[in-house]
Write a structure and sequence with these properties.
Elements (H helix, E strand, L loop, with lengths): L4 H16 L5 H9 L20 E4 L2 E3 L2 H11 L6 E5 L5 H8 L3 E6 L2 H14 L5 E4 L12 E6 L8 H5 L1 E11 L4 E8 L5 E9 L10
Parallel strand pairs: 3-4, 3-6, 4-5, 6-7
Antiparallel strand pairs: 1-2, 7-8, 8-9
This protein binds S-adenosyl-L-homocysteine.
Length: 213
Amino acid sequence: MKDTLKHRGMRKNLADIVAAKGVTDNKVLDAIKTIPRHLFLDSSFEDHAYQDKAFPIGADQTISQPYTVAFQTELLEVKPNAKILEIGTGSGYQTAVLMHLRAKVYTIERQLELFKTTSLFFNKMHYRPKKMIFGDGYKGLPEEAPFDGIIVTAGAPEVPRPLMAQLKVGGRLVIPVGTDEQIMTLFVRKSEKEFEKKEFGSFRFVPLLEDKN
Ligand code: SAH
């Protein structure tokens, strides 16, 4: 597991690509420049790690495209110490971006294989999310609610109600909604009962699945 000057150069270039696509938050761009994405991938994909592309990570899942990770993170408006719930840990790359912004991250993954691999990888890398949970993110994490932000990294056929309920007033939920294609959707909780909804273009994610297999 090596991080070299060459990798750092490629990351800088990747951050420039992501910025050119419209991401302006410097803290988010700094996360892209800093986090060694190649270590989150199988070594066979290492050469491609700094392209702005999604890649397979096993168990039929993918590491999201860097632009998508950056865009979702920007929409979440993470403040230091914010309590953030992530649904779909996957490779842990998005989790690492959130931790780089000094969020307290609770992350849920429903694929046991990925949950185990990423837990071990985080230990090795000394990445410390607040909690990593093996389970169904559809239900959120009621025992730790409410959250300042919730980010879903899989395509949701519909918005899981528990996630709306687990947001603080003022909190933000960023979720790709749809089946074949997803519309990136932001909900801001305005009060106990009111949510403001904004939509931001289409993306493609692996599906958010409700039941365990
Ligand atoms: N942020 C990850 C994205 C991985 S793809 C990364 O960049 O690597 C989406 C992930 O969501 C997959 O790992 C998938 O197993 C997981 N997932 C799908 N449905 C889920 C659910 N109901 N609860 C928790 N995780 C889920």
